[in-house]
């Protein structure tokens, strides 16, 4: 492969010096873009879009055509692994993702396969290869997976849940069954992420959407320890370069110190935690990604620029900051405002890197 | 009024010595109790139950008949104030509370009245008086209100919201309008809580359900400062005794130090924050209330007792701990398990108070 033209994202995520703060947006390929909605309509449903490598590539690259983003992220779903395990993923209008065959018992867990990425998940690897080729080394490509705890939450609940009654029921009543499920998921995620790197992903991110509904004790035992296992098991170098790994637990700000001990390179931070506090918690162990409230993008261009300035200042001088939203961009945001945000990071950040 | 028979809740919330840790449950009068469901059916809808002082008293006392709880809490809704402002509160099946006339503009805010508690909210004061009389000094009665930010969230969104698009839109685009609304709500809450104390409430709690969706900066400016105003404006002594005030921001664990500066007596803590960390953050400035994950009540009696022991140990020795769940009790919990929880706190806590 040729040399990356813009590698600021990789450098910042590895706490190496940069000239300005890199920026990308979670869910940057998404419904707020009219060109995305057009392709989505063409594909039919959401999973058909994920499973079509050419179309997945097209939507992955759409935001890069509009904005000078410093990274691309594979367009896919966090629930591809349980889908490949045969649980029958489908999307219920207004309810989000559901499974036809939820996992409820020790027998259910025992019969789950560890999916072979080059078999039932080959469409993801094909998408990674195609995107990487089309990106043509402009910016790095981030691969990703859901965390074992987050995948297990969907698999056990069956649909989105308000009180996590079933997964917590299993956690409190049959912790060993849950540990077996999480361990199998960790093995599956390792194989899945390694295959993504082999297909061309240059960085990895693990999304722990639901770790933040646990106590600190349960978070460490049922979510963090399996992310730790993944960090220890995945490929760390590709094409002669370190592959930065980012962990993101939504509502996990109070546990950043423990997360920094996993050996990952970067931690995602949501907007409820001030970055100066977050940086004080983790020291120079890891880089930080975040953390603008996505709702700011409903505000005026002036308000957006002001918030970018405040967040750059809260992180302070030096490398180790990847600018991002604290969660995915909302579907009703005006794409113009996303551009204001991206440009503001590039304009206002150089003085923090002199 | 006669002397309270069991005042451990008041003492612990004021960080005065106790012989064992007091305990009550948020939403202890609720759908998990068959006797509650019977009264609720008799009343018709939820607001008819709130607006009938005799029935509100009956459901308030139901959990005290079953369990040796150390406090009663007024049965009411957090949205009585906006309802009294004329916004037309109603409950949409599966969606929670909604308003017929949401607040969207500066003109909407300007025409909102500050409700007179003895007029449009007299049903609440009548309920407080009746409950207090029926309680007959067994345990103290806690009055409560929603926080200005939380009330404003419902009033501006109109219904429950996933992304808080409208209230945050107002916050970012028209902060002065939002400040006017919050200030009017703070005045209304002060009058409302003072009237509850005058009617017999012996302690107060402010529920800030949605403060945790803000950044630290926005939380301090738009939620905490108005709770501060309320703490400074409410009656602090009734019947010759201090009225403890508890603030609770769900998902606000990272801001406990700032909350402790308001002059309140006690802070509610959800289960994502370890109590030893919380105690280290606030020192001896305030007592702490919490923080068992309500989902533990789906577990076995042994698991429940084990969790109670872990939480007592995480708080450690000395007064200043009011045991509670980290959020309201879930509707599908077996009432027997709630009893196991309450009894475990009473059995296991004396050794922390010698």
Spell out the blueprint of helices and strands.
The structure is a homodimer of 354-residue chains.
Chain A: H1 8-13, H2 34-43, H3 46-50, H4 53-66, E1 72-73, H5 80-87, E2 89-92, E3 96-99, H6 106-110, H7 122-135, E4 141-146, H8 148-157, H9 165-173, H10 175-199, E5 203-208, H11 216-233, E6 237-238, E7 241-242, E8 245-249, H12 256-259, E9 266-268, H13 275-282, E10 287-292, H14 301-315, E11 321-325, H15 335-348
Parallel strand pairs in A: 1-4, 4-5, 5-8, 8-9, 9-10, 10-11
Antiparallel strand pairs in A: 2-3, 6-7
Helix pairs in contact in A: 2-4, 4-7, 8-10, 9-10, 10-11, 14-15
How much of the sequence of chain A is in beta strands? 5-15%
Order of helices and strands of chain A: HHHHEHEEHHEHHHEHEEEHEHEHEH
Oligomer: homodimer
How far apart are the termini of chain A? Answer: 31 Å
Major sheet attributes of chain A: 7 strands, parallel
Look at the structure and give the mean pLDDT of chain A.
96
**Over the alpha carbons, how many angstroms does the gyration radius of chain A reach?**
19 Å
- Per DSSP E runs of 2 or more residues, the count of β-strands of chain A stands at 11
Shape of chain A: globular
Helix content of chain A: 40-55%
Structural class of chain A: alpha/beta
The number of helical runs of chain A is 15
Strand order of the largest sheet of chain A: 1-4-5-8-9-10-11
Low-confidence stretches of chain A: none
**Could you tell me which chain pair has the largest interface and how many residues each side has?**
A-B, 34 and 34 residues
């Amino acid at each position: 492969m040729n040399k990356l033209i813009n590698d600021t994202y990789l450098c910042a995520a590895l706490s190496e010096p940069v000239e300005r703060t890199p920026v990308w947006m979670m869910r940057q390929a998404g419904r707020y873009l009219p060109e995305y909605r057009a392709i989505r309509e063409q594909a039919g449903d959401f999973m058909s879009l994920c499973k079509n490598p050419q179309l997945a590539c097209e939507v992955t690259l759409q935001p890069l055509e509009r904005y000078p983003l410093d990274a691309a992220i594979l367009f896919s779903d966090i629930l591809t692994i349980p889908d490949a395990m045969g649980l029958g993923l489908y999307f219920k209008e207004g309810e989000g993702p559901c499974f036809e065959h939820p996992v409820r018992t020790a027998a259910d867990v025992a019969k789950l396969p560890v999916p072979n990425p080059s078999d039932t998940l080959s469409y993801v690897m094909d998408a990674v290869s195609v995107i990487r080729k089309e990106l043509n080394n402009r910016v790095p490509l981030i691969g990703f997976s859901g965390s074992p705890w987050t995948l297990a939450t969907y698999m056990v609940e069956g649909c989105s849940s308000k009180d996590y009654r079933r997964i917590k029921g299993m956690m409190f009543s049959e912790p060993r069954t849950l540990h077996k499920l999480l361990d199998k998921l960790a093995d599956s995620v390792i194989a899945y992420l390694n295959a993504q790197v082999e297909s061309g992903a240059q960085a990895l991110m693990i999304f722990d959407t639901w770790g933040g509904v646990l106590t600190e004790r349960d978070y460490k035992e049922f979510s963090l320890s399996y992310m730790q296992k993944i960090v220890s098991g995945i490929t760390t170098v590709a094409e002669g370069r370190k592959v930065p790994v980012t962990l993101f637990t939504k509502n996990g700000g109070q546990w950043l110190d423990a997360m920094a001990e996993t050996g990952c390179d970067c931690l995602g931070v949501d907007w409820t935690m001030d970055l100066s506090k977050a940086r004080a918690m983790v020291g120079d162990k890891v880089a930080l990604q975040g953390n603008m409230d996505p709702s700011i993008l409903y505000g005026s261009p002036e308000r957006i620029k002001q918030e970018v300035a405040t967040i750059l200042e809260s992180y302070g001088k030096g490398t180790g900051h990847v600018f991002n939203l604290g969660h995915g961009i909302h579907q009703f945001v005006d794409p113009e405002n996303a551009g204001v945000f991206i440009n503001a990071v590039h304009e206002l950040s150089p003085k923090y890197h002199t």
